[in-house]
Specification:
With 218 residues, the protein is an alpha/beta fold. The protein has helices spanning 10-17, 29-35, 39-49, 63-74, 88-99, 112-120, 130-135, 140-153, 169-177, 187-192, 197-213; strands spanning 2-6, 24-26, 54-57, 80-85, 103-109, 125-128, 160-163, 182-185. The chain has one domain: TIM Barrel (Alpha-Beta Barrel), CATH 3.20.20.70. The protein has 11 helices and 8 strands. Bound molecules: erythose-4-phosphate. The site of erythose-4-phosphate has 11 residues, from α7.
């Protein structure tokens, strides 16, 4: 599974990229607002740090304007992935932009039929929003399962499933079990993935016993 980080905060991205485990980044207009910086600067800075796909979202709602914005954003760097909303206009724009060779992430996906349409429109990534479905008492992970099944039924559908709106470490594990290709994870949750109290306790015991041996490796 590939790990993307879901933030527009450059310092957080640099910290996680330094692990060598980061495959890409997703941003959205809300995350750009939170960064307090101009979008183009943010995207340019992120693409300089992360060689993998960096999603930058259009804000137009009509296909023609989405295409124009998409071309503009894609010109920032070769790894910019144009993020389009899952509307009919977004799907039209997806078809055109992927036809021109651009990477496209179709976002705000809440149903398997939407995901099927995005794949037919040639999307590079489809972003089903797990947490927002769970917030409504629905089953976000079932959506990942359903999309996986549908995509696997048809060899010609090559769109990658990008599990989004992840709120817990369990979401990451369940998305991996369900066969999502990518998880985009908020930095705080990404850091928690490596943590376990028994790891901390075990390490404390080993180091304490090691100190008693009086030895040092180097
Ligand atoms: C994905 O690309 C989105 O930016 C993100 O995962 C949305 O998450 P949220 O529902 O926590 O806002």
């Amino acid at each position: 599974m590939k790990f993307f980080v879901d933030t527009a905060d450059l310092a957080e991205i640099e910290e996680i990229a330094a692990t060598g485990l980061l495959d890409g980044v997703t941003t959205n207009p809300s995350l750009i607002l939170k960064s307090g910086r101009p979008m183009v600067d943010v995207i340019r800075d992120i693409t300089a740090v992360v060689p993998g796909p960096v999603s930058a979202e259009v804000t137009a709602t009509k296909a023609d304007k989405m295409i124009e914005e998409g071309r503009f954003l894609a010109a920032i760097a070769s790894n910019v992935t144009v993020k389009l909303p899952l509307t009919w206009d977004g799907l039209r724009a997806c078809k055109v932009l992927t036809g021109e060779g651009f990477l496209v992430n179709v976002t705000l996906c809440f149903s398997a039929n939407q995901a099927l349409l995005a794949a037919k429109a040639g999307a590079t990534f489809i972003s089903p929003f797990i947490g927002r479905l769970d917030d409504l008492g629905l089953d976000g992970m079932k959506l990942i399962d359903d999309i996986r099944t549908i995509y696997d039924n048809y060899d010609e559908l090559e769109t990658e499933i990008l599990a989004a709106s992840i709120r817990t470490v369990n979401h990451v594990q369940q998305a991996a079990l369900a066969g999502a290709d990518v998880s985009t994870v908020p930095p705080a949750i990404l850091k928690k993935l490596a943590e376990h109290p028994l790891t901390d306790k075990g390490l404390e015991q080993f180091l304490s016993d090691w100190a008693k041996t009086g030895q040092s490796i180097l």
